[in-house]
Amino acid sequence: MGLIEFLLLATVAYLVWRISDQLPDLLFRISEIQRDVADIRKRLIDVEASAKPARKKPAKKSAAAIKGAANKSAAKAKDATDADKTTD
Question: Mind giving me the DSSP string for 20-48?
Fold first, then answer.
């Protein structure tokens, strides 16, 4: 039983040593992949921004323009009710 446990422990130690030996290279490769992905996202955002037409904000209406529009709709409503009264 002691020999099997020793071989198992030696195998685990060897695997840990191999993984830790490759760890710096693995971390470097992961950071390069992350940098490439960030560049691709930035390019996609730039392409989407240039493809979309610029949206203009609607012009703000002055109080006089709003009041004038309200008066016009009130006049139309009054004309419509007057027309209904004359047809009766």
Answer: HHHHHHHHHHHHHHHHHHHHHHHHHHHHH
CA distance 46 to 6: 59
Alpha-carbon distance of 27 to 77, in angstroms, equals: 74
Q: Which residue has the higher pLDDT, 73 or 41?
A: 41
C-alpha 14/C-alpha 84 separation (Å) is 97
Domain with 44 in it: 2-52+60-87
pTM here is 0.41
Q: Report angle CA 64, 68, 70 to the nearest 5 degrees.
A: 120
DSSP letter at 52 equals: S
